[in-house]
Amino acid sequence: MSGISDRNPFVGPRPIQQGEAIYGRSREIRELYNRLQARRIVVLHSPSGAGKSSLVHAGLIPKLREANFDVWRPIRVNLDAAGLDGVPAGTNRYLLSAMLSLEEELAPERRRTPAALVGMDFLSYLDSRPRRKNRQDQPAVLLFDQFEELLTIAPRATAEKQAFFDSVGAALGSDRYWALFILRDDYLAAFTPYRDLIPTHMSNTFRLNLLDLEGAREVAVQLARQGGREFPGVDKLIRDLATVQVQQPDGSFVAEQGSHVEPVHLQVVGRRLWEAMPDGDRDIDEADVAHYAEPSKALADYYQDIVERVADGSRTVEWALRQWVGERLIVGGVRSQVRQEAKESGGLDNGLIQQLVGSYLVRTEQRASSTWFELGHDRMVEPVGQNNEEWDRANLHMVQVQAKEWVSLGKPESRLELNLARLKEAEHWAENNGDVLSPGELEYLQQSRGAIETRAAEERRHRLRVMVLTVATVVSLVAAVVAIALYRRAETATREAEEALHKSETLKRAGAQVLVYMNERVGLNRGL
Q1: DSSP at 60
Q2: Long-range contacts made by residues 417-421, C-beta under 8 angstroms, separation at least 24?
Q3: Between the N and C ends of the chain, which has fewer C-beta atoms within 10 Å?
Q4: What pTM was estimated for this model as a whole?
Q5: Contact call for residues 352 and 340 (beta carbons, < 8 A)
Q6: Would the pLDDT of 472 be above 70?
Q7: To the nearest 5 percent, what fractions of the chain are helix, strand and coil?
Q8: DSSP 3-state assignment of 365?
């Protein structure tokens, strides 16, 4: 075996470029090439993150060039023509953008200015564009990359879109030009109004599915070998990255192994693993995966890199990004969705969201005539949560951490801040940091203040009830004492009256006896 390469064979979170090896997709590359050869105009579509760009740049383009096709630079239609020198108002932005994309491939001295291209139809432009040496007689292959931008940029400019398709359709009427339209699954149906303007009506389609487990295994093994290592622990890594949350009949969610792996996740974890491996270790086993690049930790670091780059040094923006991803795209431990709205979606600026989409952290889905944002994969739920918790502990005020936990638990009263001194300190902090205070944090402070005031009022009512009860008890005791005293006094008076009556009756009986005695004595004297 050759030595271990100093160059990391895993490219990380970006598409694979021309000249770089692409593995796990040989069947798809062959089938797409055959479809394009047979049909001339093909629509390549796939879910976000499936690897369309990698398939085209690292797989299809080299194969077409080997077959001597004249493959031109990928075309984008996202340019805003307003403000370009010499470009009048009303210029078709999509058509001019397509032509300028192709001009960028030419040497600077051969490029035409935007003003020189204004007014040209697409066929005239293609016919006047320089061809590659020795390929003038070969078909030119046009690659319309990220073609959904035609729909998402200036969505109400339907007349411009119609004119663009008219011009492109006329150019593709010539067999000198072939075309591959590359777009996401969720936008495929939205092109229906324009299909009739393109030869073949865009009916020849090829769907690129997500990377299956066997394909993911091949990618990891072959890239490791390319760098000089074997990968006996690959199955553990693939099983972990394929984990999804599956809802059960009772509504709960259970982690199960899925049937696909996100290519960007595999590249992210593989790259971090390779960087951490000891220089002399030629085998990547399960212990190495767990020790050097545990998938959840690697994906958490990947998430952190993205939000830090998008925030561009702003702690306030990073906090907003983390809240949006962690609380709006993840609800109850599973992925949720946010509908796209004007300027902001779910409270976050759409420009920031688009940067998350461009980093493959967030994907879009077309549903019910609306665009919805969601986390790129179930496997990111746990890493996002862990990384957010670590960031919160290191960067947030305690009230922010408490408020976030309170919201996540369903806002129970038992988790409010009921210590008045701590609440006052938190309220003082909030007064000086209103710019970073979220609605949930504000509600937490208000509810805590209300709970403390309610508890204080209840304590006052309780003290009043105790006081009233105490007074009533004292009054009752006094009344009882008075009653007992009166009763005893009355009892004494009764007893004294009874004694007096008894004495009176005794005296009365004694007097009667005396009277009888005297009467008897008087009668006796008379008899004498």
Answers
A1: I
A2: 417/444, 417/445, 417/448, 418/448, 418/451, 418/452, 418/455, 420/452
A3: C
A4: 0.68
A5: no
A6: yes
A7: 60, 10, 30
A8: strand
